[in-house]
Amino acid sequence: MTPRHLILGLQHTVAMFGATVLVPLLTGLNPSVALFTAGVGTLVFHLVTGRMVPVFLGSSFAFIAPILAAKEAGFSLSAIGGGIAAAGLVYVLFALLVLLIGSERVRQVFPPVVTGPVIVVIGLTLAPVAVEMAGKD
User: Where are the domains of the chain?
Assistant: First the structure.
């Protein structure tokens, strides 16, 4: 194991914890379910990609606002779970679209020089909110 592998592993551990434990706690969902499904999803991902991409799949922070809004609107956790499952199907449709048109075509539209800084800006913008919320609970 090289120092680069150690740093990558540490980064994935931090990302995994935030995505897989913090998101369910913030939304009132069960972290055990999130850990289990993230593990199964990661194993399926590694099988599909032939273990070529070292990644852990966790919960999406994109779902926090819609889940909290749905809870405030009076929707049950079952209904919210159905919405999350429907969003998962949309993800699958987009994955099939990328499979059909090719990932290189997607990279032409969204090159790493564009997507990388956008992800960094999103993370830096949300970091103070996460620190504040973690400090309260």
Answer: 1-59, 110-137
